[in-house]
TrEMBL record:
Gene Ontology molecular function: acyltransferase activity, transferring groups other than amino-acyl groups
Domain of life: Bacteria
One Pfam family recorded for the sequence: Acyl_transf_3
One GO cellular component term noted in the UniProt record for this chain: membrane
Protein source organism: Sphingomonas turrisvirgatae
Listed transmembrane segments: 28-48, 60-83, 108-131, 177-197, 204-235, 247-265, 277-293, 313-333, 340-361
Name this protein carries in UniProt: Acyltransferase 3 domain-containing protein
Keywords: Membrane, Transmembrane, Transmembrane helix
Gene Ontology terms: biological process: polysaccharide biosynthetic process
Residues in Acyltransferase domain copies: 26-360
InterPro entries for the chain: Acyl_transf_3_dom, Acyltransferase_3
């Protein structure tokens, strides 16, 4: 799941300074959540399905490999916080759909197009040249039980470029791209609703809400995303009032952390319709306490925070086809037992995908400001040309 963090906008009405320490830890969380998702995928691609008894290290691997979906929900909360923050502040200054969409699309499209290109290339080589058992479904892993050839069609590619993974398959092996399409539609839904309800300003973007009727899972996931938006609303409201007692905030944060861990443990084995919004709500409560406490940055977490801010989006968008290709090179028709060799291959697949994403991000996420500036210059030149004509 992807969380493109917008540039912080100045807000003169906010009384207290921005909680930069809390934001540092939120960036580190982005890396941690992406690692949980990627670890679960690497484990499922390489390690055979659970068979008792297993050693304690293997048991731990099987256990933590099952938190990928929960990590995506936590991503949604962070995304809801950052994007709603940007939308609300833009609306106060004077809303422009053009400016907003330029910012969002210049953040999303380079990564999406690059991920589709890389994934398509690696998948094609794996299927047509390497005849990879992983890609042909011979390893029977639950994370890759699809017809790869059908998923590599031009129709699927074009639909994925238009963020329509909510109604069509994801391109090639890159199943994680489903959450990117969810994010895109949330980026449209929230400002459309906010402008209509808060500023009495209707737009054609409201029509996009009908997609939730046809894709109920998308509408349900939006509730989790909105927990992050509600978190920003509470933080913004509290920022204009006297700060609460630190002892009370600390007690609240510890309680929320315990509730979060309990909810995660429960959802690891129990499934119900409302578990994702419940998890998002508890996580939002924990983030509220973290933001109010605003703990200082921790030197040991700086690499994680830096990676989270610069490359976690790319890591999430590219890790699966990179890992699957590594399996095409290293794995036969049977997945491995969770011994030292098997777990070493899992670690290697993770390291390869992390390293690749760092380089990939430098050419995509790292060029977002330059791309945005270029598009703005082109737009201004066209407007001047129209005015002069």
């Amino acid at each position: 799941m992807t969380i493109p963090r917008p540039d912080p906008d100045a807000d003169a009405a906010t009384v207290r300074a921005e909680p930069t320490g809390a934001y540092f830890h939120m960036d580190a969380m982005r890396t941690m959540f992406a690692l949980l998702v990627a670890f679960g995928h690497a484990w499922a691609l390489i390690i055979r399905d659970y068979r008792p008894p297993a050693g304690w290290l293997a048991e731990a691997g099987y256990y933590f490999a099952g938190f990928g979906h929960q990590a995506v929900i936590l991503f949604f909360v962070l995304s809801g916080f950052w994007i709603s923050r940007s939308v609300v502040r833009r609306a106060v200054r004077g809303w422009s759909w053009r400016s907003y969409l330029v910012d969002r699309l210049t953040r999303l499209m380079p990564v999406l197009l690059g991920a589709l290109a890389v994934g398509g290339l690696l998948d094609t080589i794996a299927v047509r040249l390497l005849h990879s058992p992983t890609h042909l479904g011979l390893t029977d892993t639950y994370v890759l039980r699809i017809d790869i050839a059908r998923h590599l069609s031009w129709e699927v590619l074009l639909a994925n470029m238009a963020f329509l993974q909510v109604i069509v398959p994801t391109f090639g092996t890159n199943g994680p791209l489903w959450s990117l399409s969810y994010e895109f539609w949330f980026y449209i839904w929230f400002p459309a609703l906010w402008l209509a309800l808060r500023h009495r300003r209707l737009s054609l973007a409201l029509v996009a809400l009908t997609l939730g009727w046809f894709v109920p899972k998308l509408a349900l996931a939006f509730l989790s995303w909105l927990c992050g938006a509600a978190l920003y609303g509470v933080v913004d409201w509290l920022a204009r009032r006297p700060p609460p007692r630190r002892r009370l905030v600390l007690a609240f944060t510890v309680t929320a952390a315990i509730a979060l861990l309990a909810t995660l443990a429960d959802e690891r084995f129990v499934e119900n319709t409302w578990q994702d919004p419940a998890l998002a709500l508890v996580f939002s409560a924990f983030l509220l306490g973290l933001i109010l406490l605003d703990p200082p940055a921790v030197a040991g977490l700086r690499p994680m925070a830096s990676y989270g801010a610069r490359a976690s989006f790319s890591f999430y968008a590219t890790h699966f086809p990179v890992m699957a290709f590594a399996c095409a090179l290293l794995l036969g028709s049977e997945r491995l037992v969770p011994d030292v060799y098997g777990m070493a291959l899992v670690a290697l697949a993770l390291l390869l995908s992390i390293s690749f994403a760092w380089v990939f991000a430098a050419q995509t996420e790292g060029r977002t400001p330059a791309l945005r500036d270029w598009l703005c210059r082109v737009g201004r030149r066209r407007l001047r040309g129209v005015a002069q004509g």
